[in-house]
Design goal:
Layout: E1 2-4, H1 22-26, E2 35-38, H2 46-50, E3 68-72, E4 75-85, E5 88-96
Antiparallel strand pairs: 1-2, 2-3, 3-4, 4-5
Length: about 100
């Protein structure tokens, strides 16, 4: 199951571009991308998906210490862990790919 990440805000690039090819992408922060988390859910059916409502709880196969893969446009960019900030569920990046 892929969980879309919301409220992601791109910040302007403030460094200077080097001659390396990869730095070209760093200088274009306005390029759109889709972030997704892959959370394994065992025994989750289409009926379960249709029954989801605000406040629903879904049991995952993640151990509370397991890192969850983070992808940008389907490319693995790092690993995250869940965190609670106030009354919201968030992810904290623990390692980059």
């Amino acid at each position: 199951m892929s969980v879309p990440v919301q409220n992601v805000e791109a910040k302007p690039f403030e460094g200077r571009a080097n001659d390396r090819e990869g730095d070209l992408l760093d200088s274009m922060p306005w390029l759109p991308c889709s972030l997704s988390l892959e959370v394994p859910v065992v025994g989750f059916t289409i009926g379960d998906l249709l029954a989801l409502r605000e406040g629903s709880i879904v049991e995952t196969a993640c151990h509370h210490t397991s890192d969850v893969p983070l992808r940008a446009n389907q490319l693995l960019i790092g690993w995250t862990e869940f965190d609670v900030i106030g009354d919201r569920l968030a992810v904290r990046i623990t390692e980059t790919a």
